[in-house]
Automatic annotation (TrEMBL):
This is Uncharacterized protein. It holds the Pfam family DUF5718. It comes from the Bacteria. The lineage of its organism: Bacteria, Pseudomonadati, Campylobacterota, Epsilonproteobacteria, Campylobacterales. InterPro entries: DUF5718 (IPR043776).
Length: 272
């Protein structure tokens, strides 16, 4: 994963930004569609001489920042591994190849942050991705129709539902509509408010032909809304085929440490 750039989408699941206390950050960002995501942020840019050049993906451990006053919250979402094609230094097409469960853990109380990206890459293990699943087609009738996302937090012997169980079809923008929006943002998003100029980032990264893009965090359960991560916690983010498994069977498998097939994407991170 250290060779692939990482980007995330903000505001692609209804009410998540409000729950996360980040809605005000995007007050100046206007969209043509009230349901449209707010923008795209970088979380890892290979070769960057800024903090974004730090490889922040660790699939076994989530390392809290050195500043113990910062509150870190899990952000369960779906990551797409995408292939990019360019024309005249503009993104021409985006093709999702694989998808996986992802934890886009974020700082909630950094008052010095002026960009959303500054809340994202806070350690060598501030992100994590589960085993990847091949995408047959990223459109209606494809594999993603049948998948849901759920997350849990284990603290000592207690396992709580952290995020809501949500079908991937519940994303505000998905499939072709999402890809067109991503392409437009990569080509036109400017350095404004909490967002950054993405075409400059792609240019400075020599126009990468692959990237990981995480498509937005789901809503929290009541127990997860204000529960920040502590050393010793274990984070789970799970993407599962809801035509083959129900939530109860997934919950029991996580609780009992049972092995699930590779058709289930599981991320397990110990917090340190």
């Amino acid at each position: 994963m250290s060779e692939i750039l990482g980007f995330g989408i903000a505001g692609n699941f209804a009410l998540h930004l409000e729950q996360a206390g980040e809605a005000d950050d995007f007050a100046l960002v206007k969209t043509d569609d009230e349901y449209a995501p707010k923008g795209i942020f970088p979380f890892y840019i290979k070769g960057s001489d800024s903090f974004l050049g730090r490889n922040c993906i660790d699939n076994g451990y989530l390392y809290l920042p050195n500043d113990k006053n910062l509150n870190i919250q899990m952000e369960p979402e779906i990551a797409l591994r995408c292939e990019l094609e360019y024309e005249n230094n503009k993104v021409k097409s985006i093709k999702p190849l694989k998808f996986a469960a992802f934890n886009d853990a974020s700082v909630r109380n950094d008052k010095t942050a002026t960009k959303i990206s500054q809340k994202k890459n806070f350690s060598n293990g501030s992100k994590g991705i589960g085993n990847e699943i091949d995408i047959d087609k990223f459109s209606l009738g494809g594999i993603c129709d049948n998948y849901s996302l759920i997350s849990f937090l284990q603290s000592q012997n207690e396992l709580i539902r952290y995020g809501e169980c949500a079908k991937l079809s519940g994303y505000s923008y998905f499939y072709e509509k999402l890809l067109e929006w991503i392409k437009d943002r990569l080509n036109t998003q400017e350095n404004y408010a909490v967002l950054e100029n993405l075409s400059d980032i792609l240019k400075n990264a020599n126009y990468p032909n692959e990237m990981i893009i995480t498509i937005g965090a789901t809503r929290y359960e009541e127990a997860g809304k204000n529960r920040y991560l502590k050393p010793g916690d274990i984070c789970y983010v799970v993407a599962f085929d809801h035509t083959k498994f129900d939530l109860s069977s997934i919950t029991n498998a996580i609780k009992n440490g049972s092995k699930l097939p590779s058709s289930v994407s599981i991320l397990r991170q110990e917090v340190r």
